[in-house]
C-alpha cells in the first residue's frame, strides 16, 4: 500500500486548496478526483467573489491560497459590489472564463511539488482504532495516509432532477459518489439531505442581445491576489433582462411538473437562493424577476442564464426561456436541473474541521452543508492546513470570529450546525468593520508566513506596509493646524468648513469632504510629511484614510472584541457533564452535550442558549477549576 502524509478526496474548490496547502507545508499529498478534467470546475455560475465571498477570497490569498490568483488570471468581467457603501460591506466579484479557470487551477495543482494526482472514485475509508489510516478506491486499491480530507461537494448520493425524471449523478454528466456516502453513514456520521440547482446554458448566437441591457466591466479593479501585478486585457459584458407575465403563467400552470412542488425533492434548499419556480410561487405579486446573461468564456458560445434556474421538464424549460424578451429564439445547450445530495452535519467537527468521531479525518466544503466556491475553498484551505499541522505534530490553526470571515464561518458551522445550505453574508460577521476585504493581507499574511505558505519577500512587503500605516497615522496625528486665515481660507477653497480649534491632519482626514489628496493643501507646513503624502502604495493611503474616517466605530469594535475574548476564551473542560447542571433545560443539556463546545464563547452561540444558562455553566466550570 502506497503511503502518503495527507490524502484529499475530491478536487473541487475545497479539495484544490486543501491539497495545495498540505503539500506546500511539506506533506506528501495525494489528491483524488473522479475525473481529472473536472478539477476546480465551476458547477454553477462562472464567477468568483461577491458579497462577503470577496472577503473570503482575499483571506484565502492572504494566507497563501490559490483561488484569488487563478480568478485574477482568468477574469473577464470585474465589479466592486456596494461601491457606494462603506468599506466594511464592499466586495469584489469577477466573472471568469470558466474553462480557463479550471485548466489554470489544474496546471497549478499538477505542477505543485509533493502533490500527487490520481483519477479514481474513492469508495471507503480505512479505519483502525478510531483513526483513519487511508482510503480504498472503486477498484479495491488501498492508499495509506496519516490524515484524510474529504471534499466531495454535491457528489455524495447525488440525485439529479429534471421534471419527473431523476437519475444518480454528482453533477450533470458526472457519476455520483454512492459507496462513500454509505460508508460515512455506517461509520456513525449524522447525515442530512440538501438540494441546489443550476440554470440552463444557452447558445450565444441564438440570443438577441440588442433586447437586453448591456453592462460592461468596471474599468478599475483591485486584483484579489497580492501577487497579481496585471490583469488580462480581454473583457466580456453581461446582459440584463426580465421574465414576463407569460413566464410566470407557464410556471404556475405547470407547477405540478416541478419535482420541488410535487414532493419528490426532499432535500433542503437555500431560502436566499430560490429557483425560478420558487420565486414565482412564493412572490406571486411580483410581475417580473431579473435575469442576467453571463458569457461563460472567451472561446465558447455558452451563456449562463442567471435567474432562470428551475427543475422543470426540458420542454417547459424551452418555453420559459423563450418567454423572456431577447431569448425568443435561444437554444438550450445544457438543461437546468436540481440536485439533491448528502451532507454531514458539521456539529460533528472540531474547530480544526477534524471530525470528532474519527481522528485524522477532516471534512471541508459542500459536504459540511455549505454552498459556494469561496466557502468551499476557505474550508478546504483550513482543513488542509490543519491536516498538515497534525501530521507534523504542530499546534492547530484556528482563526476566531474577530480575525477573519473564515473564522466566522467555521465557528458558525461547528457550533450551530446547518438547517439549510450555508453561505457567507457580511451580516454573519459581528466585527465586519475590522474584517474588511481591503485589510485581509494585514490581518492574515503574517499567519500565512508562520505556516510556511507565504514567501519571505511577500511577508516583508506586508510587514513594511503595516509599519508604514502605523507610522503614517502617528505622523499625521502629530502635525497640527490652527484656526487662522491661512488655514481656513484653504479649507474654504475646497468647500470644507473652517476650523475653530487646533486639529491634527489625521483628524482632518475624518471629514467626509476631505480626502488624502487634499492633504497637499497644507504642504507649506513645516514638517509636512511630503514622502507620506506622495506615498505610491495605494493600500497604505487607503488604510490610513479608513482608520481616520471610521476611527470611532473601529475602536468601539476593537473594545467589543477585547470584551468578547475574555469570555470567549474561557475553556470548558473536555468531557464536561451538562446533565448535572441545575436550571438547564433538557433541550439545552442535549444540545450542549452533542456540540461539546470547547469554550464559553462557542457555548454562547448555540441556538437557544440564554444568558442565564451561560451563567449556570460558568458557575459549574469555576467549581471544577
Ligand atoms: P465540488 O466543487 O462539487 O467538488 C467536488 C469534487 O469531488 C468533484 O470534482 C468530484 O469529482 C470529487 N469527488 C466526489 N466524490 C469523490 C470520490 N468519492 N472520490 C474522488 N473524487 C470525488 N453554489 C453557489 O454558491 N450558488 C449556486 O447557485 C450554486 N448552484 C449549484 C448548482 C449545482 C447544480 C451544483 C452541482 C452546485 C451548485 N453550487 C452553487 C455549489 C457549488 O458548486 C459548490 O458549493 C462548490 O463547488 C463546492 O465545492 P466543493 O469543493 O465542496 O465541491
TrEMBL record:
GO function term, MF aspect, one: flavin adenine dinucleotide binding
Keyword field: Cytoplasm, FAD, Flavoprotein, NAD, tRNA processing
Gene3D superfamilies (UniProt xref): FAD/NAD(P)-binding domain, GidA associated domain, C-terminal subdomain, tRNA uridine 5-carboxymethylaminomethyl modification enzyme MnmG/GidA
Residues the entry annotates as binding FAD: 10-15, 122, 177, 366
Main location: cytoplasm
InterPro entries assigned: FAD/NAD-bd_sf, GIDA_C_N, MnmG, MnmG-rel, MnmG-rel_CS, MnmG_C, MnmG_C_subdom, MnmG_C_subdom_sf
GO cellular component: cytosol
Region forming the signal peptide: none
Membership in a protein family: Belongs to the MnmG family.
NCBIfam families: mnmG_gidA
Subunit and partners: Homodimer. Heterotetramer of two MnmE and two MnmG subunits.
Name this protein carries in UniProt: tRNA uridine 5-carboxymethylaminomethyl modification enzyme MnmG
Gene name tied to this protein: mnmG
